Amino acid sequence: MAAPPSAVVDWEGLPTWSGGYGPLRNQSNGLKALRYAVRDYGINLNWTDWPNSVWEVYGEGLSTNAPITSTTNVALRVPGGGYLRWGAQSWGIDLVWSATAVYEWNVITTAGGQALFNRSRNDYVVYGSRPWGVNLIWSGDAMVTPPDSGVTGVRTLVTYNCHNDRRPLRMWINDMDAGGVWTDLGLLGSQWSGSSCPVGSPFIYSPPVANHRIQVVAVDYSAPGCANDPVIGSCRRSMVGIISNPAGGVAQITVS
């Protein structure tokens, strides 16, 4: 298997031998880890501190403790849920549980971390914000228009401010593959005009580099108790994760 793009090397903690277990920590989410947890929408996974995360890794046809390589067909099991597999969901990322082992994953370990590739979906799973379900996306989810074009990643992100309380927002980005430093890109005023929204020019961001994991946050800085700080979760009106690609698609979001 070819080396994965750096943008999808988003994980660490899984063992590299069959029958082993360990935490599944996410680099884009401050090394928070995934565990089984009942939720109202989507697959029953949620974020926790890494000691509470246990993932079992089994290589197809391998004995206990046999080494797992990037080409090994792997089954991933989470106590309480079962074996993780690709499958349709009404809400959130298309992942479901199986009572029996499904060897459809590759765990690709590099110097920078680990990538999780699902052969049934033919895509990598990475961190990304969702309105419903756990904050996971397929790397291809970061392309939006035009549909079925064959492009992957985001060339330009277009954001409109239709905040229900008609407050302005500050737009911040965090390039996880360029030091992970938050940068304030400026003000996006309310785009309400009477009963219509959006009216006026959106916030437009075009990443200058390819294959970087970038978080984009709209900060509701004038909300009660808030400040212009993208790290304060309660002050984030919107957060999306994209994978940059100058030849990719145009993503559009409306903050409400």
Secondary structure elements and pairings:
Blueprint: E1 11-12, E2 20-22, E3 25-26, E4 33-36, E5 45-48, E6 55-59, E7 74-78, E8 82-86, E9 95-98, E10 105-110, E11 113-118, E12 123-127, E13 136-138, E14 154-161, E15 169-175, E16 182-188, E17 203-205, E18 213-219, E19 236-243, E20 249-255
Features:
single chain, 256 residues, mainly beta, five-stranded antiparallel β-sheet
Describe the structure.
The protein has strands at residues 11-12, 20-22, 25-26, 33-36, 45-48, 55-59, 74-78, 82-86, 95-98, 105-110, 113-118, 123-127, 136-138, 154-161, 169-175, 182-188, 203-205, 213-219, 236-243, 249-255. With 256 residues, the chain is mostly beta strands. The strands form six sheets. A five-stranded antiparallel β-sheet has the order 2-6-7-8-9, with no helix packed on it. Strands 10-11-12-13 form a four-stranded antiparallel β-sheet, with no helix packed on it. Strands 16-15-18-19 form a four-stranded antiparallel β-sheet, with no helix packed on it. A hairpin with a 6-residue loop joins strand 15 (169-175) and strand 16 (182-188). The termini are far apart. The model is unreliable at 143-150 (pLDDT under 50).
Percent of residues in beta strands: 35-45%
Distance between the termini: 42 Å
Judged by helices, strands and strand pairing, the structural class is mainly beta
Query: In terms of quaternary structure, what is this?
Result: single chain
Q: State the helical fraction.
A: under 10%
Main beta sheet: 5 strands, antiparallel
Spatial order of the strands in the main sheet? 2-6-7-8-9
Low-pLDDT sequence parts: 143-150
Mean of residue pLDDT values:
88
Total helical segments: 0
As a whole number of angstroms, the C-alpha radius of gyration is 19 Å
- Please write the string of helix (H) and strand (E) elements: EEEEEEEEEEEEEEEEEEEE
Q: What is the global morphology?
A: elongated
Total count of strands? 20
